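Changelog-adjacent note: as of this version, every example in the card shows the full chain rather than a window. The one below runs 288 residues end to end.
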Amino acid sequence: MSALKFPAGFMFGVATSSYQVEGAWNEDGKGESIWDRLTHDRPEVITDKSTGDVACNSYRLYKEDVRLLKDLGVHFYRFSISWPRILPTGHDNVVNQAGIDYYNNLINELIANGIQPVVTMYHWDLPQPLQDLGGWTNPVLADYFEDYARVLYANFGDRVKWWNTINEPKIVAMGYSSPTGFAPHILTPGHGQYLVVHTILLSHARAYRLYEREFKATQGGKVSIVDMCRWIIPTTDSEEEEEAAERVRQMHIGWVLHPIYSATGDYPPVMKEWLAKKSKEEGYSRSR
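Full-length structure tokens:
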């Protein structure tokens, strides 16, 4: 039996998100996030009433984290930056220098140990003041996200060459449409998820174009997005089942990726047609 080998140059890495590991939820000028608010005001939403107040305490133990990563032998570490740790109000009029210092120290420690930083700008911990404006259902967040991205590029882009704007837009949307315990846990099913993903796509585009326009020539990095995709396979080879599977693929995977990668820059036609049909059946004068 021949051995299976990874190709030369293949990179191994691991990933975390800020709320899951950092702790220090209200220290050194950090603002409140939607996960802070949810777990403090409605602890029953989490089965064991856990919070991220301390988590892995990576805010203080980042050097130990990097040592463990080096021992593991990974080539890159994908971590997210906490928007409210950088901009406590969500706006760029107040920049928290302690937050800038923390991520500078983490990035420098990674590079010193031969590990590439891969940075996610947003992994679900929206500043609570922006949620008070409607959160991701409000398209004005595209403006604020662009402002936030500019702060990140300006402070970290000389060393960070791999950026992800937003982690898993459809999961973010669940916080506005599904009773699953995702922050901000506001239930507007049938409407909220579409508004959220649309605003996220606009935000991604704004951050991407900003980098291409103002930073790429001097920093030479790349900007992308992280999506959660499920591949749907029909149970039989019938034409009917294959068509059904393709519809689900288009409405699940295509929802986020078709606007980004297609020539039209729009949602999949099958998704638009289905939503228009369902909206009409439910008595709406316009499609959701």
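Structural remarks: Residues 192-219 form the longest helix (28 residues).
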